[in-house]
Amino acid sequence: MRNSFFFSALLHAVVIAVTYYGVPFLRHPPLVMDTPIAVEVVTIADKTNAPPPEAPKETPKAKEPPPPPEPPKVVETPPPPPMPAPKPEPEPEVAAVPPPPEPKPQAKPAPLPKEEPKPAAPPKLADKKPKHKPKPPDRFASALKDLAKELKKAEPASPAKKEAEKKEAFETQIAKALSSKPRQHDPSLPVSISEIDMVRKQIEKCWNLTSGAKNAEDLIIEIKVEMNADGTVRSADIVDKGRMQRDSFFSAAAEGALRAVLNPNCQPFKLSPEKYDQWKTMTLNFNPKEML
Amino acid sequence: MRYGWITALVVLSLFSGAWPAAAELKIDITRGTVEPLPIAVVDFSGNTPDDARFGKDISGVIADDLERSGLFKPIDKRAFIQTDMALNTLPRFGDWRVINTQALVQGRAAIAPDGRLKIEFRLWDVFAERQMVGLVYFTIPDNWRRVSHIIADAIYKRITGEEGYFDTRVVYIAESGPAIRRIKRLAIMDQDGENHRFLTDGSSLVLTPRFSPAMQEITYMSYYGNLPRVYLFNIDNGRQEVLGDFPGMTFAPRFSPDGKKVIMSMAKDGNSEIYVMNLGTRVVTKLTNHSAIDTSPSYSPDGSQITFNSDRGGTQQLYTMDADGQNVQRISHGEGRYATPVWSPRGDLIAFTKMTKGRFFIGVMRTDGSGERLLVEDFLVEAPTWAPNGRVLMFFRQQRMEANKGGGAQLYSIDLTGHNERVVITPVDASDPAWSPLIPN
To answer: Where are the strands (E) in B256-356, listed by range?
Structure first.
């Protein structure tokens, strides 16, 4: 009797367990063939990581004086074009020509000092707001207010009063939270994609493409840039020097890209100075694919 | 077990390589602007007033050439801050950056004691603060204009990477007189319209002139004694000769890229075929054999292929074939009729005239017929010809003809991107231009 009860209990337990968990060998979960989704891990614009106004200054290194001009190459005299009139013209003599004098060192103008770095980065909007407006996160707060008003209208008056008070408190809390200045700024965070976009926009304005070049889609140029802390370019170098020698189309395109990087009208790059360590050297990849 | 360890090691090594210690910031720039490059061409200096006058004229021609290309924007000289430039000292780059100069040209002209003109110039990259090119030329003073074009070509090449086209000439058909008694003369000029002269007197009608790659000869079609034939004209000595002794009318001639052959059409019994004549041996070879009309042949720059138009498919369309006439392929498939295909000297495109819905177009397509782009549309636009760098096209445009007046045909140039259309100034009405190769030194 006792055994039967035991077996009965055991069997019941087994049945319950099987119902709950399922029989392991009878049910194979169907293979899920999900198409893989490519995910690019990027840092989205993070306003909360905006740099504080006091940007550290660093005087950019003075540029090395450029090398003196090379003496022009002497080219053989081009003869006058063949004239249709039969009258022959004297052919100019071709003579070896001494190169023009080397530039005198004393006459060389001193290299221009680089423009002073602009004063510290302007304070960010978030920091300025409280000075001008008593309630800084006005939009959000007002949106909440509207919401609160609507709720007030909808709900009966007496019990809603307390609720409204609570909401008011909540609202002010949010307002406080939003307006509370110095946000935690972490310079170790990666340069955000919005900052990269900003720099991209800056350089695009200065990149003057020579359109109509043959096989322009192959003219992809990498430029290695060393930056000053104020966002100006200290030096820029075309990576593929070998191709510069071989391919005149490439070298023209590469020099065009270099001019875009060096163009003072498009500097300083708007990158946060705290992350200087991360962008003090960077590689710019010029690919005209969207322009073809 | 041993394999397990090896596998583990391999997997480990793969993963350790996949994560670099610190990723460097990389930014892709995929868009830019298409604007002319701001360039400052300073008046070339000179020690004497004569030298200085040469210098000013030379820099003027250079700036005009560059401006006309549409790829450069010469900066107004009144904006220059540095005016005391000497050729053997570095420019004050900061002064040039202030006025948004990206490239700077300076130079010097001097008449040497032996009477020759010495012209030297330097091209500076203002942002990189370095010299891009510096050259010296010697020539007779009368030749200053040509040297200016050569310098403009050197600047153009250094900055765009493409060969220049300023040191070139254009032959065209100069037209004058009323429509019913139109006088058509062969004329030649520099690509900027200077040094213009007529090559024939207008007593016989001339059409479709084409330059030889060697420059001394032009081939064209002329109605001499009312018999239309292909002629050769020697620019050096002014001699003309009929090319070949064909039983029918020959027309639409063009040189092969090596200048040793002339390809043309011959019409006989209402049908026209394409022939090629070896100028050395005078041997003539028939390349097409079809009951349809085949005409307007043009060689590819390597001489291995020929493009032409034919109505063998029912309408007039463009075709390509090998230089021996084999492997004929139709390349145009659009609406309307296509004519006058011209292979680009760069090899990548074919320019053509298209006629559809009563309008004329000048367009370009790739050599396989893809990527058709129409650049110009008008009542009558025709006869595209390539600049030697394959980047600029010249053509003519004609307004509706009236009985007692000329049609007002004029030459135009346009960039192959469809921008920068310019009138080419000629003393009389002009049609059927042919651009020369770069003038050999």
So the answer is: 261-268, 271-278, 284-286, 294-299, 305-310, 317-322, 329-330, 337-343, 349-356
* Cα B49 from Cα B58, distance rounded (Å): 14
DSSP string, A17-54: HHHHH--TTT-PPPP--PPPPP--------GGGPPPS-
Interface list for A 114-173 with B (CB within 8 A): none
Shortest Cα distance from A51 to chain B (angstroms)? 19
Who among A85, A99, A205 is closest to B33 (CB)? A205
The angle at the Cα of B358, spanning B357 to B362, to the nearest 5 degrees, equals: 90
From residue B18, give the alpha-carbon distance in Å to each of A121, A267, B12, B13, B15.
Answer: 37, 34, 10, 9, 5
Question: Please, which residues 262-321 of chain B have a Cβ atom closer than 8 Å to chain A?
Answer: none
Tallying the residues shown for chain B, one arrives at 441
Q: With the C-alpha atoms ordered B411, B413, B417, B418, is the resulting torsion angle positive or negative?
A: negative
Q: CB distance A107–B89 less than 8 Å?
A: yes
- In this structure, of A82-96, A203-217, B47-61, the range with the lowest mean pLDDT score is A82-96
Q: Are A248 and B157 in contact (CB < 8 Å)?
A: yes
pLDDT tens profile B146-193: 999 999 999 999 998 888 999 999 999 998 888 778 888 999 999 999
Q: What percent of chain A has pLDDT over 70?
A: 41
CA–CA min distance A66, chain B (Å): 6
Tens digits of per-residue pLDDT, A6-48?
999 999 998 998 888 776 666 666 665 666 676 666 555 545 4
Query: In sequence order, which residues have a C-beta less than 8 Å from that of residue B30 and are 6 or more positions away?
Result: A287, A288, A289, A290, A291
Q: Which residue of A has its CA nearest to B154?
A: A75
A252·B158 Cβ contact <8 A: yes
Best to test chain B binding among A87, A191, A196, A211 (most B CBs inside 10 Å): A211
Q: How far apart are CA A123 and CA B287, in angstroms?
A: 77
